[in-house]
Design a protein that fits this description.
Blueprint (H helix, E strand, L loop, with lengths): L3 E6 L3 H11 L5 E6 L2 H11 L3 E4 L8 H10 L8 E5 L4 H10 L3 E4 L4 H11 L12
Parallel strand pairs: 1-2, 1-3, 3-4, 4-5
Helix pairs in contact: 2-3
The protein binds manganese (II) ion.
Length: 133
């Protein structure tokens, strides 16, 4: 089985636990996590995941800056980046898209929406409907 790796950068352990359980609903996905922006940058550079999910309010470097730095690095620029944030104002969403996020999900986590997004951004063995190109 070809494994896919998802990185989640989040400072709230209970959100990490919920996310871990959601990912468990899809076979073949490995989760790696970091609890702040600087660690998240190192995590993504080390693992080169297939998808990065980023909380916006992070200690140190926030999620917007982390997204910009990942985009600026040719080794991580191509990785799809999803914001997962409690901030739900239109300006928050706009700023996230400007920073380079492909999608914006709000907390509390909408599990069906998250699963649908995983299936869309991780086509292949993790998707029941995905077909190889
Ligand atoms: Mn946070």
């Amino acid at each position: 089985m070809s494994l896919r790796t998802v990185a989640y950068v989040e400072d709230n352990p209970s959100n990490v636990e919920v996310f871990r359980q959601v990912l468990g609903l899809r076979p073949g996905l490995t989760l790696v996590t970091a609890g702040d922006g600087i660690s998240g940058l190192a995590l993504v550079r080390a693992h080169r995941p297939d998808l990065v999910v980023i909380d916006i309010d992070l200690p140190g470097m926030d999620g917007l800056e982390l997204c910009r730095r990942l985009r600026a690095d040719p080794q991580t620029a191509h990785i799809p980046k999803v914001a997962l944030s409690a901030n739900a104002m239109p300006r928050d969403v706009e700023q996230a898209h400007e920073a380079g996020f492909e999608a914006y999900l709000t907390k509390p986590m909408d599990v069906p929406a998250l699963i649908a997004l995983l299936d869309r951004l991780l086509p292949g063995p993790a998707s029941p409907t995905g077909s190889p190109a």
